[in-house]
Amino acid sequence: MSGYKTITSDIIETGVSNFYTNLGENPIFINSLLQFKPAVAAETQVRFTVNYPLGIFGLVDFATPMGLGKQDEHFGGSGELLLLFT
């Protein structure tokens, strides 16, 4: 990882990180719905909707300064529910 940090600037590192964080919003959205957390799901979807077009596919994070913070949901909380449906 040190080679990557050596050849890329902080702006590029931040853009790449933002891009992959933005891609992770949709699984968080689905998971929030499965956990019956509609407010978290709505905020996550709005965050994705803002960052995807305005932030050039999420390279720039416009949602955080707007007060739409990244959610920390994961499938650990809905794993039992998923087992019921399989």
Description:
α3 packs antiparallel against α4 (38-54). By secondary structure, this protein is mainly alpha-helical. The radius of gyration is 15 Å and the shape is elongated. The mean pLDDT is 82. It has one domain. Helices cover 63% and strands 0% of the residues. It is built from five helices and no strands. The relative contact order is 0.16.
State the share of residues found in helices, binned by percent: 55-70%
Tell me the count of domains. 1
Could you tell me the strand content as a percent range? under 5%
| Straight-line N-to-C gap | 39 Å
Order of helices and strands: HHHHH
Shape: elongated
What is the number of helical segments per DSSP (H or I, 4+ residues)?
A: 5
The helix-and-strand class reads mainly alpha
Ranges with pLDDT <50 over ≥5 residues? none
| Tally of strands | 0
Radius of gyration: 15 Å
* Average pLDDT for all residues: 82
The biggest sheet amounts to:
none
Attribute tags:
mainly alpha; 63% helix; 86 residues; elongated; 0% strand
In a few lines, what is going on in this structure?
Helix content is 63%, strand content 0%. It has 86 residues and is mostly helical. The N and C termini lie far apart (39 Å).
Chain-wise SSE layout:
Elements: H1 2-7, H2 10-23, H3 25-34, H4 38-54, H5 79-85
